[in-house]
Design brief:
By secondary structure, this protein is of the alpha+beta class. It has helices at 15-31, 62-69, 72-81, and strands spanning 4-12, 35-39, 53-59, 85-93. The chain has a domain at 15-39 and 61-89. Helix 1 runs antiparallel to helix 3 (72-81). The longest helix is centred in the N-terminal third of the chain and has 17 residues, at 15-31.
Length: 102
C-alpha cells in the first residue's frame, strides 16, 4: 500500500507564537502515524517560487494523511497558526510503481 504525504511550504511571521502550533501538531501527527522526512532544513529552489520553509511528513497511507488533516487535533493546531504563518499544503498519495531503470 502506498504511503501518504503532506508536502508543505510555509512562511512564519511570528516564530515565538508559532511554537504553540508546532507543539499542538505533535499530537495529531503521532495519532495518525506522521513522521517528518524534511522539516525546514537547507533548501534550494532551482525552479519556480518557494516559501522559507519546506516540510514533508510521511503517513502510513493516504487515508491516514487525510484523516490527520481533517481531525479535531489538527484543527486545534491549525487555529494556533492563524496570523502567525502562511502555509501551502498538498496531501498526496505515494507511488509504488515502476522506477526509471526497472
Amino acid at each position: 500500500m502506498a504511503k501518504g504525504y503532506w508536502i508543505a511550504f510555509g512562511d512564519v511571521s511570528d516564530p515565538e507564537g508559532y511554537k504553540a502550533c508546532v507543539a499542538a501538531n505533535a499530537g495529531a501527527f503521532r495519532k495518525y502515524g506522521g513522521r517528518f522526512l524534511t522539516r525546514g532544513g537547507r533548501m534550494e529552489t532551482p525552479e519556480g517560487q518557494a516559501r522559507a520553509r519546506s516540510v514533508v511528513i510521511e503517513f502510513p497511507d493516504h487515508a491516514a494523511a487525510l484523516a490527520c488533516y481533517h481531525s479535531p487535533e489538527y484543527a486545534a493546531a491549525k487555529a494556533l497558526r492563524e496570523g502567525r504563518a502562511i502555509l501551502d499544503l498538498s496531501i498526496v498519495e505515494g507511488y509504488d510503481g515502476p522506477q526509471p531503470g526497472d
